[in-house]
């Protein structure tokens, strides 16, 4: 053992001596560490925070551990050089990262770097070309920062193996360099939401393994290259939407035979749409709307009947005029919707289309599903501004500590709620990773799907701005329904709402791959749709319980009055802390007393109050509106229902988590109570 260590020691001194002999002061991994320490100085000085995850982790004293214990760093097994740097979203305080300055040129010394992920960390300044001198580079993620300047022209000069380039949502200007054609391994290029200008380089057609190309919402002008698509057999997703491209759409696009999504909307294309789209057997979504001089002729529409995968076709605001060809009746059975507003459609509409000219509600459902599957496709700030009349106060639905919620109508008439996060610099603590704080969390939330959870339709982040686009709930919150005099929920409606909420909690606690704790359950976070079905909203402080944990700790406080004792006192959250809040919610719904009232804060709690009054009978505590009955028997049924409910609520609010019911038992009990009430009322009627 000793011998081996000795040999290793000799070897490493030999390496150091070699490095010294060759004139370099640093050994290789010290050089890597030095480059990272340069980056750290920018980050730490800008955040001026000793709490930053890097502040005590990356230190000059620990350069020998760069590969083994620096957070965000991975190295090759044999050469022990840094191969991956991932600071994505790190140290995000509040919702907007501070300006952290340029990427230091020393990054170019990471000679074996393959993956550089500096996503959403507040980078400003330019992209140093030296990054692309690293010949091993495969993935660059610099999206959602405040980067300025141009896309370096040495792209893929040395870094020939570049496969994925994500630069969306920055302030990069100038043209897309012709050299992009030398990126022969490029599979994904995401350059949307920048002010890039100039035309689309012809050479992009040389990127023959390209799978996804996003150039949406830039200032690109000129024509599409006449051969575009001829040599892009792998292209699946292509978006040029929201530019100022003109001229005709080249038929060569239909040679990209694997296209699934094609967005050419909101440009200035003219001429006829080529009638060769029938080649696109994989095409699912075709958006050509918003090109007012584009001629959509019957032969093009007929050609689409060969696109066996087509689901969505939007031709609104083009120069289409006349009758839809009867052949469109032959569109495949998977076709889901057609949108042709502001087109002068005359004559008979083929029955298939008539059936699939969707109501906006049905379309939203389709759209939502699709949006949920499109990872990088986001709604732009401009779209949201249009949707809310410039965030007009008339559209304001509510305010909270997180920011504001607006009602909006998207260009396709979808009603949405837009939650705009305000900057909380200095206010949020480290522990407060909101749903943007951590990409895993955001991903998981996107994947949560239950009829009683509010759905995330899309997200929008750009410099200084973050928003969530959510399903719109026309009937507002449960809080409003309980306390406003214009509304009334009868006893069955209240039971149904509680059953809805408990079903959502059951899904969060037990139905998903990892348990999710909502942490802030209260009537203002329970929203009602057009049919008064309840949906839980606001996952701002939710927690995920990883790998078999039954609880976690947080410093974030929820709402006094609803928080379980162990949560309020020690910051311990578990599924049982949600059960406690649910118990309080049940009490509130049936007593119409708000646990945050002053009288509850000073004197006895909601739970103590209910505990004291339960033995005295329902008339002492229940919402009197629920006891207005026609007959004594009716009263008896309601009385027994409400007292069972309160007993259940008290079991949810046991002092120790262990003694509380699990949510699936609560749900089963609620259902039983409801069916008992139904039976009683029937028998007596
Ligand atoms: C850095 O943080 C990681 C985990 O976050 C830890 O495993 C490691 O020991 C820390 N390294 C140092 C040098 O403090
Ligand atoms: C990057 O590569 C280019 C082209 O080989 C070269 O001219 C330039 O000096 C390199 N820059 C650095 C900092 O190595
Ligand atoms: C691609 O690289 C080759 C060799 O370095 C060079 O001759 C050519 O001009 C480059 N093409 C583009 C479009 O920059
Ligand atoms: C790359 O693009 C240029 C310009 O379109 C073309 O002349 C050249 O032949 C292409 N190279 C390859 C390898 O396809
Ligand atoms: C592109 O597709 C058209 C038919 O749409 C075909 O005539 C042409 O040969 C194709 N070109 C290439 C380069 O594949
Ligand atoms: C397209 O726009 C450019 C300016 O960006 C203009 O010079 C050109 O004439 C236009 N072409 C067509 C076909 O409209
Ligand atoms: C629909 O397709 C069938 C079978 O291919 C064909 O016979 C029929 O003419 C088509 N209908 C129209 C209106 O094009
Ligand atoms: C994100 O959250 C998940 C689940 O809470 C956790 O496992 C993961 O380590 C977090 N990632 C970062 C970068 O903080
Ligand atoms: C009482 C009330 O406002 N009910 C509304 C719930 O939402 C639906 C759909 O928007 C409306 O039709 C109801 O009037």
From TrEMBL:
<keyword id="KW-0812">Transmembrane</keyword>
<dbReference type="InterPro" id="IPR008271">
    <property type="entry name" value="Ser/Thr_kinase_AS"/>
</dbReference>
<dbReference type="GO" id="GO:0005886">
    <property type="term" value="C:plasma membrane"/>
</dbReference>
<keyword id="KW-0325">Glycoprotein</keyword>
<feature type="binding site">
    <location>
        <position position="419"/>
    </location>
    <ligand>
        <name>ATP</name>
    </ligand>
</feature>
<keyword id="KW-0418">Kinase</keyword>
<keyword id="KW-0808">Transferase</keyword>
<keyword id="KW-0677">Repeat</keyword>
<dbReference type="InterPro" id="IPR051809">
    <property type="entry name" value="Plant_receptor-like_S/T_kinase"/>
</dbReference>
<keyword id="KW-0732">Signal</keyword>
<dbReference type="Pfam" id="PF00560">
    <property type="entry name" value="LRR_1"/>
</dbReference>
<dbReference type="InterPro" id="IPR000719">
    <property type="entry name" value="Prot_kinase_dom"/>
</dbReference>
<dbReference type="InterPro" id="IPR001611">
    <property type="entry name" value="Leu-rich_rpt"/>
</dbReference>
<keyword id="KW-0067">ATP-binding</keyword>
<dbReference type="GO" id="GO:0005524">
    <property type="term" value="F:ATP binding"/>
</dbReference>
<keyword id="KW-0433">Leucine-rich repeat</keyword>
<dbReference type="GO" id="GO:0004674">
    <property type="term" value="F:protein serine/threonine kinase activity"/>
</dbReference>
<dbReference type="InterPro" id="IPR013210">
    <property type="entry name" value="LRR_N_plant-typ"/>
</dbReference>
<keyword id="KW-0547">Nucleotide-binding</keyword>
<keyword id="KW-1003">Cell membrane</keyword>
<keyword id="KW-0675">Receptor</keyword>
<keyword id="KW-0472">Membrane</keyword>
<dbReference type="Pfam" id="PF00069">
    <property type="entry name" value="Pkinase"/>
</dbReference>
<protein>
    <recommendedName>
        <fullName>non-specific serine/threonine protein kinase</fullName>
        <ecNumber>2.7.11.1</ecNumber>
    </recommendedName>
</protein>
<dbReference type="InterPro" id="IPR011009">
    <property type="entry name" value="Kinase-like_dom_sf"/>
</dbReference>
<keyword id="KW-0723">Serine/threonine-protein kinase</keyword>
<dbReference type="InterPro" id="IPR032675">
    <property type="entry name" value="LRR_dom_sf"/>
</dbReference>
<dbReference type="InterPro" id="IPR017441">
    <property type="entry name" value="Protein_kinase_ATP_BS"/>
</dbReference>
<keyword id="KW-0597">Phosphoprotein</keyword>
<comment type="similarity">
    <text>Belongs to the protein kinase superfamily. Ser/Thr protein kinase family.</text>
</comment>
<feature type="signal peptide">
    <location>
        <begin position="1"/>
        <end position="19"/>
    </location>
</feature>
<keyword id="KW-1133">Transmembrane helix</keyword>
<feature type="domain" description="Protein kinase">
    <location>
        <begin position="391"/>
        <end position="677"/>
    </location>
</feature>
<dbReference type="Pfam" id="PF08263">
    <property type="entry name" value="LRRNT_2"/>
</dbReference>
């Amino acid at each position: 053992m000793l011998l081996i260590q000795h040999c290793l020691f000799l070897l490493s001194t030999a390496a150091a001596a070699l490095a010294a002999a060759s004139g370099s002061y640093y050994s290789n991994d010290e050089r890597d560490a030095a480059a990272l320490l340069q980056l750290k100085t920018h980050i730490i000085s800008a955040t001026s925070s000793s709490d930053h995850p890097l502040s005590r982790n990356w230190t000059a004293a620990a350069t020998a551990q760069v590969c083994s214990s620096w957070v965000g760093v991975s190295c090759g097994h044999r050469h022990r050089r840094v191969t991956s740097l991932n600071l994505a979203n790190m140290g995000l305080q509040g919702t907007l990262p501070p300006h952290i300055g340029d990427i230091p040129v020393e990054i170019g010394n990471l000679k074996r770097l393959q993956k550089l992920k500096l996503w959403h960390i507040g980078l400003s300044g330019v992209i140093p070309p030296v990054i692309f001198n690293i010949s091993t580079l495969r993935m660059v993620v610099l999206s959602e920062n405040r980067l300025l300047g141009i896309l370096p022209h040495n792209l893929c000069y040395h870094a020939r193996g570049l496969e994925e380039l994500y630069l969306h949502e920055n302030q990069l200007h100038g043209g897309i360099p012709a050299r992009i054609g030398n990126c022969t391994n490029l599979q994904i290029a995401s350059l949307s939401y920048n002010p890039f200008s100039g035309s689309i380089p012809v050479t992009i057609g040389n990127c023959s393994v390209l799978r996804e190309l996003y150039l949406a919402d830039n200032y690109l002008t000129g024509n599409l290259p006449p051969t575009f698509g001829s040599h892009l057999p792998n292209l699946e997703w292509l978006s040029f939407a929201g530019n100022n491209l003109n001229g005709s759409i080249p038929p060569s696009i239909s040679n990209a035979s694997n296209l699934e999504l094609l967005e050419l909307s909101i440009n200035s294309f003219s001429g006829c749409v080529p009638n060769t789209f029938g080649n696109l057997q994989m095409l699912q979504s075709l958006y050509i709307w918003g090109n007012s001089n584009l001629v959509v002729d019957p032969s093009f529409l007929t050609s689409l009947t060969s696109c066996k995968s087509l689901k969505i076709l939007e031709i609104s605001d083009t120069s289409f005029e006349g009758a839809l060809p009867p052949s469109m009746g032959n569109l495949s059975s998977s076709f889901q919707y057609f949108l042709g507003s502001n087109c002068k459609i005359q004559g008979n509409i083929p029955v298939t289309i008539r059936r699939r000219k969707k109501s906006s509600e049905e379309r939203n459902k389709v759209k939502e599903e699709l949006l949920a599957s499109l990872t990088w496709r986001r709604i732009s700030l401009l779209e949201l501004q249009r949707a809310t009349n410039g965030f007009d106060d008339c559209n304001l639905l509510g305010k909270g500590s997180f920011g504001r919620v607006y009602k909006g109508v998207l260009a396709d008439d979808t009603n949405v709620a837009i939650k705009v996060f305000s900057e909380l610099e200095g206010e949020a603590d480290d522990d407060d990773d909101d749903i943007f704080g951590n990409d895993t969390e955001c991903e998981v939330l996107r994947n949560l799907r239950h009829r009683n959870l509010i759905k995330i339709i899309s997200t929008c982040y750009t410099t200084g701005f973050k928003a969530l686009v959510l399903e719109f709930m026309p009937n507002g919150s449960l809080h409003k329904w309980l306390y406003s005099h214009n509304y009334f929920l009868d006893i069955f409606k209240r039971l149904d709402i509680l059953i809805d909420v408990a079903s959502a909690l059951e899904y969060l606690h037990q139905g998903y791959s990892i348990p999710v704790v909502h942490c802030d359950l209260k009537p203002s976070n329970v929203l009602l749709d057009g049919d008064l079905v309840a949906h839980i909203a606001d996952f701002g402080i939710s927690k995920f319980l990883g790998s078999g944990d039954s609880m976690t700790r947080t410093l974030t406080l929820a709402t006094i009055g609803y928080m379980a004792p162990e949560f309020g006192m020690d910051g311990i959250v578990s599924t049982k802390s949600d059960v406690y809040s649910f118990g309080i919610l049940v009490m509130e719904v049936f007593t119409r007393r708000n646990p945050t009232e002053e009288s509850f804060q000073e004197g006895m709690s909601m739970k103590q109050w209910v505990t004291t009054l339960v033995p005295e009978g329902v008339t002492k505590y229940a919402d009197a509106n629920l006891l207005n009955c026609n007959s004594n028997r009716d009263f008896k049924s309601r009385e027994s229902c409400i007292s069972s409910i309160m007993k259940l609520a008290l079991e949810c609010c046991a002092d120790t988590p262990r003694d509380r019911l699990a949510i699936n038992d609560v749900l089963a009990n609620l259902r039983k109570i409801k069916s008992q009430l139904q039976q009683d009322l029937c028998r007596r009627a």
